[in-house]
Each structure stands twice: as structure tokens, then as C-alpha cells.
Amino acid sequence: MPPKGFTKVGSLSQLAEGEMMAADISGGRVLIANVDGDVFAIADACPHAGAPMSEGYLTDNMVECPWHASVFNVMTGKHREGPSRADLTTYEVLVEGDDIFVGPEML
Ligand code: FES
């Protein structure tokens, strides 16, 4: 049973370290990334032109947009380089056993 306000988005056993995937939650589509065993969730749509960030490239805790190479920190959503002028929204994540849940936006 997911905690109130959280949506089950997948299983830790299906998301190896260094990998990411996309999932739908009520607030939109999110990118889920496993960075050294910790799981993070950010908005999947690049603020620059809407590319699916989950189809980009994850290196350590940085994800690169597949279209024009903006780079964001998946742990904080902060934009680091490239043409985007905005950060990505981050979401709360809860891991219980093998289940990954994504909750509300982090403020
Ligand atoms: S759509 Fe992501 S950098 Fe342009």
C-alpha cells in the first residue's frame, strides 16, 4: 500500500545503479535515477524544449538532455550547463523493500 500522496513507479531490482527510467505520476512524467544506490526523481521534460530527459545520458549524478545537451543534477534538479534557462522540478522518493514510490514536489 503506497503512503498517502505517493505513487509506486517501479522496483529497485529493475533499476540498477547508474540507470534511469521514466514513470507517470499524477503530476506528470518523471525520470527516476539510481545514483550509487540512492534513488532520485525529477521532471522528465527538459525545460528548454521539452525533450524526454530519461532518453538522455546519465553520468554519476548528472543527466544530459538528448536533444541539445543541457546538463542537470538529478539529485537537486539544478541546471549546470547548456541552453536551458531553468532547473528541473524534483520529487520526493521513498524506497520500501523493493518498491520505489514518488511523492509530491520538493519545495
Ligand atoms: S530540449 Fe533539452 S536542451 Fe534543448
Short description:
By secondary structure, the chain is mostly beta strands. The protein contains no helices and ten strands. The chain has strands spanning 7-11, 20-25, 28-35, 38-43, 57-59, 62-64, 71-73, 79-81, 90-96, 99-105.
List keywords for this structure.
107 residues; mainly beta; Rieske Iron-sulfur Protein; six-stranded antiparallel sheet; four-stranded antiparallel sheet; binds FE2/S2 (inorganic) cluster
What would you note in describing this structure?
With 107 residues, this protein is an all-beta fold. The chain has one domain: 3-layer Sandwich (Rieske Iron-sulfur Protein), CATH 2.102.10. The protein is 0% helix and 48% strand. The chain has no helices and 10 strands. The strands form 2 sheets. It has a 6-stranded antiparallel β-sheet with strand order 1-10-9-4-3-2, with no helix packed on it. It has a 4-stranded antiparallel β-sheet with strand order 5-6-7-8, with no helix packed on it. β2 (20-25) and β3 form a beta hairpin. The structure holds FE2/S2 (inorganic) cluster.
